[in-house]
Each structure stands twice: as C-alpha cells, then as structure tokens.
Amino acid sequence: MTRTRAASPRGFVTIGRAVAIPVARVSVVVAVVTVVLIVATAVATLSLGRLGIPVADLPGALTGGADGKQAFVLERLRGPRLVVAVGTGAALGLSGALFQTVTRNPLGSPDVIGLAAGAGAGAAVVALFLPGVLPVPAGALAGGAAAMALVYLSTGTGFRNPGRLIVAGIGVFSIATAFTQYVVYAVERDKAAVLTAYINGSLAARSWSHAVTIWVVLLVVVPLVALIAGRLRIGEMGDELAGVLGAGPRSTRAWAVTLSIVLSAGAVSVAGPVAFIALTAPQIAKRITGRPGPHLTLAALVGALLLALADLAAQQSPVPVNLPVGIYTLAVGGLYLGYLLTREWRKGSL
Amino acid sequence: MAIGTPPRPSEAGAKRAGLARRSSFLLLGLVVLGLAVLASIAFGSHPTSLSEVVAVLNGTADSDITTVVESRYPRTALGLLAGLCLAVAGTLMQGVTRNPLADPGLLGITAGASAGIVTATAFLGATGQWAAVWWALAGALVAGVVVHVIGAVGSGSGLVRLVLAGAVVSAVLGAYVQAVALSKPQVFDSYRYWVVGALGGRDVGVLMSVLPAAAAGLVLAVLLSSGLNTLALGDESASALGANPALTRSGGLLAAVLLSTAATAAVGPIAFVGLAVPHMVRALVGIDFRVQIVFSAVIGPALLLLADVVGRLVLRPQELMVGVVTAFIGAPALLLAVRRMKGTS
Q1: For B70, which of A222, A288, B84, B206 is 20 to 30 Å away at the CA?
Q2: CA A92/CA B39 separation, integer angstroms
Q3: pLDDT computed for residue A9 by the predictor
Q4: Which of B172, B196, B279 lies closest to A331 in CB terms?
Q5: Which chain A residue has its CA at the smallest distance from B332's CA?
Q6: d(CA A119, CA B284)
C-alpha cells in the first residue's frame, strides 16, 4: 500500500508567509479529476431520461430561465436529490476517512460500531410501533444517537481508546441488527419490505430542507476537521512520536471519532443508513493515489462521486422495481474497490 | 490494533499456574456445555417435566412424550455443531487476519450463502431445506474462493487486502440479494426468516450434509494450530523457525471458510458467536491457538445451545430465533467486559 516514491515531488500551497500546506501533486490531480467526474455525473443526473433537461438547455435552466416542466424537474424532482446525494456522499467519505485513520482498521466507519444498525433499529421502532408519532428519519437519528451513547458509556474511556471502541461497537451493532432482523421477520411482508428499503438508505423524494441539513452539517464539521487534520497526519506515525511532537494522540482520536460520528449521523438523518460509502471512499482514495496518509479531502470527493453515481444508477436503471440507492452504493462501490484490488494484484505492487 | 494477539513471554512458573487455571476453566466449560445439552433436550415450547425426560432417555416413556423429546435431538446436535464451527472459525479468522472485527461473515461466507439460497429460490424453483443447504454450501464456498483469489494471501499487507476483498464480495453479493429479495415477495419471505438464524425446523439430513465440510475444517484447524502460534511472532521470526507463513495463513483461512460455511448453510447466519467467543476465549486463556481452539469448541456450542433454550422459553408457545437471543444475551455481556480490556489502543 505504501508505494511512496522515493523523493516524491512535494509542492507547498502557501497562504501569506505563515501557512504552508504540503500538497502532493498526484493528490491534486486526482482531486481535480474527481471533481470533474462529479460535475459530469451531475449533468447526466439532470439531463438523462424521459424527464431530463437537455444538456443544451441546462445552463439556461440553472441560471433561472427554466420553463414550467424543466423548473419542476430541476427545483423539485432531481435538483434537491442531487445536492443531497453529493453532500451526503461527501459527509460519509470524510467520516470513513477520519474513522479509519484513527482506528487503523480498513473496515472502519461509524457503521461498524453500530451507528447505521442503531439507526435501522430506531427506524424500525418508529415505523412499526409508533407510527405517526415521530417521522421515521427522526427515529433513525435517535436510534443512531442512542447506539453511539451506549458505545460511549460502555467503553469507560469515551472514544479515546480505539480497541475498546470497536469491541463495544460490536456489541451494540449485534443487538441493533438482531432487533431489526427480528422485526423484519415478525411483521407483515409489505411493512417489512418498506422498512428493509429504508434501512438500505434511500434518496427518493428528497427536498431542499434535506439538502440544507446535510450541507449545514458539512459547513460546521469540515472546519473542525481541518483543525485536527495536521495532528491526525502526525498520529499516523504512531502514538509515541505523535506525543513527542505534541499532538496529544488520545484527545485527537476522541475528536476525530466524534466528528466522524456527527458526519455519519447527518448523512443518516437525510438519506437513512446508506451502506458502504464510508468504508470504500477512503480505501479508493488511498488506492488511486497510491500514497499513505488520511486523504480527507479526496475521500470526501470520492464519497460524493460514488453516491451521485449510485443515485444516477438508481434513477435510470431499467429494473422495474424502484430499488433504494443503498443497494446501488453496495454494488457500485463494491465493484470499483474490487477492480482496484485486482488491478493492484495484477501489477504485483504489493 | 489487534486485541490480545501480540505474544507475551511467559516463564515456567507462570506457565504451570496458567495450566491449572486453564484446566479448571476447561472443566467448568465442559460442565456448562453438558448442562446446556441437557437443557436443550429437556426444555422446549411444549412443556415436559424432568422426570418425563429421564423416562424418555431410559426408554420407558410413552410414545407422545418420546416424540416431543426426540424432536429436540436434531436441533441440539445442530446447535453443538454450529456453535463449534462458528466459534473456531472466528478464532481462526481473528488470529490469522489480526483483525478484532473478523467474524465468519468477513470472508464473504454469509453473503455467499445468502446469494446461493436467494438464487435457488428465486430462479431455480428450489424448495425445502435440502435444496437450501446445498445451495448455501455452494454459494459460500464460491464466495470464499473468490475472496481468496482477489485478496491473494501473501505478505503482511496482503491481510488488509484480504479483509477488503471480503468486504467487496460481501457488498456486491449483498446488493444482489437485497435487490432480488425486494423485487420478489416470495423470496423476501423465505430470506427474512433464514437471515435471522435459527436451529429449529431442520432435520438430521441438514446436519449430515454439512458434516463433511465441518469435519475437514476442524481437522485442518487442529493440525495448523501450532503453526498459527509461530505466525503470531511475526513473519520473519516464523520463517526463521521453519514455518511457512503464507501457507499456514492460507490453511487457517481455508479451515475457517469450511467451518463457517458448514454452520451458515445449516442454521443461517448467526453473527454474534463467531465474533464474540474469540474475544471471550482470549480474555480467559490468552493467545495460544491450541488452547484457544479447544476453548472455542467448548464455549461456542454452550453459548449457542443456552441461547436456543432461552429462545424456546421466553415467548412460549412461540419461539424466538437463536440468532436474536445470542445477540441479546451476548452483547450486554460484551459491553460489560469492555471496561476490563487492557491496552490503550
């Protein structure tokens, strides 16, 4: 994995004389390409299919010159959904990158310590036992929060100790999953199918209020992540060295885990527990650049691209049943990560 | 990051004290297992008194009671086998991949078995438990092999690739399973029952059809256990001691695949046993694989059978599936145990 080139060309982005941020050229190139791909996916999302706005009309429509049908598609149907998809994907990618860096576990994301499973259980409780009392997403958020609170309290050291975090997370994850599976088994089939679809994560019928929610979460959390990013990078060198360099590994970890959870919870509140993006995006970022390091920005961009692509597939797929986007994220993210792994394998680079 | 896996030097005196400790733990474990087997035969959703059960075991009971009690034999045997398989497989996987999150689902086994069953019921018109078992076996084995091919077990960093390959295969197959289940109501109906994991409603034929895979996996695990110990010293030391790390690792994972395939095909995916029992065992007896495997083989079945008994009693006359009960009993225990974990990372 550490294909760091000897004497890799490193540039610095300087802001005045006080700040010099080291930036690897390959990461910049990959980031730019990813952004271009996100834009291309966005154009495709808006213009494909029966209701699509033709590409030629798109600039006009975006600058306010849309007629009735196009305005409806842009402002009600696909626009908010796209903005939610990009924001949610970015939040999940960043969340996974933070979590994996801190726990040094390639399977790490708040989902493995039970966030998504708790959200699923919360959704199940609200949808089946308290219908009409609370909206289902509120139940999911409450379930996720309860799961995280349980993990926090069980470890005895909060989020500071990754080993305890993960073992406590296994416990919470197992209870929540078993509960949800039992509910899905025990209720009528139609209700069970609706619940299963929700638990997979869905972007159908998202409004601008969802878009505002996830982007506000990003706007609040991203600056905080930027504050600890440098210390995270030092943390990659190991606790002792990080301690010597004054990076306070334990509090950095606790912060990173907390921010990671907030990001994932934001994603859950707008899209339900979308699977697999938090797990794959950081790994894909790492494998495209072939460099070590947290890859926070890139993971966020890759996450945004993955979810936007998966949602494009969900909207345009020829399958008669409307499958939730979470199924496509599993398929798209899984196939792409699999491709990257086999490519590395053929090159014999490991 | 690996919990409890780094080797610690032990002195002779400490070793002897450890042996006594382990022996008493093992004895205790066997007693609990024996009680669990008895409980599994004695208790059920149809109430039977202890004297009736004893009469059945002596062959002096009337035929009604005998039928009731004898119907509990297959699920007891299945519980023994599945608990053993899952716990030993989990121990092997967590040890070999050095990932405390490793469980039998990790290498795509659960997803493969699910995909096999869903495919068979959706497209091939398969019905009944027999067909399901065979398709689950086939699906799980294929998934396990694909994960190995993508993960290409080799150097130390290859383990990360293996874990990721497992996640990839699980994800793609999971998407397939969910897509089929959500578009075909009949498939969804049988799938949502199977995915919880249950011991009831299966006959001896199911046990017999997974027995070869289970036996092969267990034999392989026992043969490799001392090799796996040297592996814990790190690849270089292991090579210096004459072990072949890559081969041992592949063997250990193959054993884990066989064991978890057998269990999953027989009783469905029961997540918690394979994940948690290895943590419990390491906390009890340390990291020697030979000891770990023995303890897993005792604690795993005991836990699963007790959970199944509880599941039969709490909702009488209905039953709660064992997959739900293991999580609801085991997980709180795990949460209480977390605070006692050593190490800072």
Answers
A1: B84
A2: 47
A3: 40
A4: B172
A5: A171
A6: 33
Which candidate from B3, B164, B172 shows the least CB-CB separation from A106? B164
pLDDT of residue A313: 87
DSSP H helices, chain B, are 12-42, 50-58, 63-70, 72-97, 109-123, 128-151, 158-183, 185-194, 204-231, 235-240, 245-267, 271-285, 289-314, 322-338
In CATH, the architecture of A20-309+325-347 is Orthogonal Bundle (1.10)
Predicted confidence (pLDDT) per residue in B253-290, tens digit: 889 888 988 888 888 888 778 888 888 888 888 888 88
Half-sphere exposure of B61 (CA within 13 A, CB side): 19
CB pairs under 8 A between A and B: 192
Contact A163 B161 (CB under 8 A): no
Of all residues in chain A, the one with the smallest CA distance to B325 is A178
Angle at B196 between CA B159 and CA A274, to 5 degrees: 60
Q: Chain B partners of A170 at a C-beta cutoff of 8 Å?
A: 101, 275-276, 331, 334
Task: Measure the CA–CA gap between A104 and A98, rounded to whole angstroms.
Answer: 10
Q: Cβ separation of A275 and B279 shorter than 8 Å?
A: no
Neighbour-count burial of B88, counting CB atoms closer than 10 A to its CB (0-12 exposed, 13-18 middle, 19+ buried): buried
Residues of B in contact with A331 (CB under 8 A): 171-172, 175-176
- Give chain B positions within 8 Å (CB) of A323: 178-179, 182-183
pTM tops 0.90, yes or no? no
- Taking the CA of residue B50 and the nearest CA in chain A, the distance in Å comes to 31
**Are B192 and A103 inside 8 Å of each other by CB?**
no
Inspect the interface and report whether the beta carbons of B183 and A321 lie closer than 8 Å: yes
The pLDDT value recorded for residue B296 is 92
Nearest to B5 by CA among B326, B293, B283: B283
Q: Given this model, what pLDDT does residue A111 score? A: 80
* Both structure tokens of B32: 């609990």
Q: How far apart are CA B66 and CA B235, in angstroms?
A: 56
Domain boundaries, chain A: 20-309+325-347
Does residue A49 sit in helix, strand or coil? coil
The answer to whether the CB atoms of A196 and B182 lie below 8 A apart is yes
Residues of A in Cβ contact (< 8 Å) with B344: 161, 163, 239, 250
Euclidean distance between CA atoms A311 and A301, whole angstroms: 15
- What ranges do the domains of chain B cover? 12-338
Give the C-alpha separation, A200 to A273, whole Å: 6
Q: What is the pLDDT of residue B195?
A: 80
- A167/B174 touch (CB, cutoff 8 Å), yes or no: no
The residue in chain A having the minimum alpha-carbon distance to the alpha carbon of residue B185 is A189
**Tell me: the pLDDT tens digits for B82-92?**
999 999 999 99
pLDDT at A7: 37
Residue B33, pLDDT score: 92
Print pLDDT tens along chain A (350 aa).
444 433 334 555 555 565 555 567 777 888 889 999 999 988 888 888 777 777 777 777 777 766 777 777 777 778 888 999 999 999 999 999 998 888 777 777 888 788 888 888 988 888 878 877 788 788 888 888 899 889 888 888 777 777 788 778 878 888 888 888 888 888 888 888 878 877 878 888 788 888 888 899 899 999 898 888 877 777 666 666 666 655 566 778 888 888 988 898 888 888 888 878 888 898 888 888 877 667 888 999 999 999 999 888 888 877 766 788 888 888 887 887 787 777 766 555 44
Residues belonging to chain B:
345
- Look up the CATH architecture of domain B12-338: Orthogonal Bundle (1.10)
Are A181 and B195 an interchain contact pair (Cβ–Cβ within 8 Å)?
yes
Q: Under a CB-based contact definition with an 8 Å cutoff, are residues A64 and A43 in contact?
A: no
Q: Do B320 and A182 touch (CB under 8 A)?
A: yes
